[in-house]
């Protein structure tokens, strides 16, 4: 088992994204409740009840729940930097510290530089971000990786320690 030098768990914090999700959920709740409990229909050909229940489950419950449990976990141990997106665990990236050539804390503009947060690839840099505008730029085998972090200096320090404090 490897010794953990750094661990950070980030959640989405964009207020405007939360507002959008809550508005979508509110519409789903309103449509489902007004139809199923009060019999109020919308339009000339209202959708069947089963479709409203599916839409309510997906957008009224599923989407807000997914937003609530979404996380980006960054871990540095003695051998690797691991970035994991949960809850689906559909993306996990491991970068071996022996292959990291440099680590530099930076401030960036997620919308301007990458078109938003998440897993992005733009102008030769692969970005793994969840929120905020701070992170570290890792050069690994001459490829560029931006990892979002609320504590970029600490993350770079842990990478340096894992690399044996070679040149940052």
What labels describe this entry?
4-stranded antiparallel beta sheet; elongated; 5-stranded mixed beta sheet; 35% helix; 4 helices; 168 residues; alpha+beta
Runs in which pLDDT lies below 50 for 5 or more consecutive residues are none
Number of strands: 9
The arrangement of helices and strands along the chain is: EHHEEEEHEEEEH
Mean model confidence by pLDDT: 86
Question: How is the biggest beta sheet arranged?
Answer: 5 strands, mixed
Walk me through the structure.
This protein is an alpha+beta fold. It has one domain (1-168). It is built from four helices and nine strands; from the N terminus they run βααββββαββββα. Strands 5-8-9-7-6 form a five-stranded mixed sheet. It has a four-stranded antiparallel sheet with strand order 1-2-3-4, covered by helices on one side. β8 (134-140) and β9 form a beta hairpin. α1 (15-36) runs antiparallel to α2 (49-69). The mean pLDDT is 86.
Draw up the topology in text.
Layout: E1 4-10, H1 15-36, H2 49-69, E2 71-77, E3 80-86, E4 91-96, E5 100-107, H3 110-114, E6 118-122, E7 125-129, E8 134-140, E9 143-148, H4 152-162
Parallel strand pairs: 7-9
Antiparallel strand pairs: 1-2, 2-3, 3-4, 5-8, 6-7, 8-9
Helix pairs in contact: 1-2
A few lines on this structure:
With 168 residues, this protein is α+β, with helices and mostly antiparallel strands. It has helices at 15-36, 49-69, 110-114, 152-162, and strands at 4-10, 71-77, 80-86, 91-96, 100-107, 118-122, 125-129, 134-140, 143-148. The relative contact order is 0.17.
């Amino acid at each position: 088992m490897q010794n953990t030098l750094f661990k950070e768990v980030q959640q989405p914090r964009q207020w405007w994204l939360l507002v959008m999700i809550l508005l979508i959920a509110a519409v789903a709740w309103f449509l489902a409740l007004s139809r199923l409990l009060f019999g109020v229909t919308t339009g000339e050909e209202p959708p069947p009840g089963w479709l409203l229940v599916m839409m309510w489950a997906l957008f009224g419950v599923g989407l807000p729940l997914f937003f609530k449990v979404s996380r980006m976990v960054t871990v540095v141990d003695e051998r690797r930097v691991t970035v994991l997106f949960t809850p689906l665990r559909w993306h996990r990236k491991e970068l071996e510290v022996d292959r990291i050539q440099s680590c530099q804390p930076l401030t960036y503009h997620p919308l301007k530089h990458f078109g938003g947060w998440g897993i992005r690839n733009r102008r030769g840099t692969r970005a793994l971000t969840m929120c905020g505008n701070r992170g570290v730029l890792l050069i690994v085998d001459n490829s560029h990786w931006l990892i979002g972090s609320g504590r970029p200096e600490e993350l770079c320090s842990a990478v340096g320690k894992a690399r044996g404090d070679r040149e940052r």
